[in-house]
Amino acid sequence: MTTTPTSTAFAVTEVAERAPVEKIAALLENPGFGNLFTEHMVQVDWDRGTGWHDARVVPYGPIPLEPSAAVFHYAQEIFEGMKAYRHEDGSVWTFRPERNAERLNSSARRLALPELPPTVFLDSIRELVRIDEAWVPEYGSGETSLYLRPFMIATEEALGVRPSNRVLFSVIASPAGAYFAGGLTPVSLWVSEQYVRAAAGGTGAAKCGGNYAASLASQAEGIENGCDQVVFLDAQEHRYVEELGGMNLFFLYADGRVVTPELTGTILPGVTRSSLIELAAERGLQVEERRFTIDEWRDGVASGEITEVFACGTAAVITPVGRLAWNGGELTMPGSHELSLSLRQELLDIQYGRAEDRHGWLYQLV
Ligand code: COI
Hints:
28% strand; 8 helices; D-amino Acid Aminotransferase, Chain A, domain 2; single chain; alpha+beta; binds 2-OXO-4-methylpentanoic acid
């Protein structure tokens, strides 16, 4: 098997004793999402004078930071979410990683963090997956994968509000099963009327921790109201559907139209979102990226014009939406989810190497 060598030089410090294969196999049987971590992590330092330096692989463990480190106070932090998939022949691949490298840098510009050369990003992913390959679940084990979490934090000890002069880029890896414990059970969404996720000119298009922290109070409100997730509306008119905070939304019409909210700067440009736009268009569906109001959603479901609604993202792939609720009302989505599940299967088949990768979306890691 041929694999691309990394061009970034990593100093490698392995754990003193590798986890026994039986232990890893037992943990991978039911990994859940985001609770289990592999044995190593990648770290690369940056400072304003030297730039990026000291790329290394070290045992997974705590990051020593002073309490005054800027990330703790002003949330100068960004991250990415990706997956490594085992194919039937044992090889390991990831999906459109150059998109994540680009998005990390666009988030970095917005958060006044340094851009990371895409080769360092890709090499970091490859290096970590190679050393912790034993943690990539076997092919055929349901939808399990190795979730990869690259992130960048401001490490300088300083309370002045200004861009940090020191930064850490790191990648950790987490064997993962389904994101939602209910698997493919359709999720119910709560329309957040009290809170918004992002306003024009804000950080909505960046993948920064602050956006997710700001979504938690509305998420709690949604759960109190019997829903799984929250749908955010635009900050100005409170009419336009934006996203779920961690996932983009799609609306499928009986006449073959597919509508997804356009990227206005307040919505995260999801890699899954953009891939599904291509897959849907290739099926002859008419994809419309445009502003889409909450009334269109309610009316479209009530009239039967909207036949399916789904949310998508790297972690959960495609999740059907079953119910929409708001202060004073609720609406049940149509029940079939046939097209949503077929798009989901098509995407997974590409990711797991069961379907031809006709777009060149796969990137071999091992
Ligand atoms: C993803 O789908 O990768 C996400 O970013 C959602 C969440 C786990 C933060």
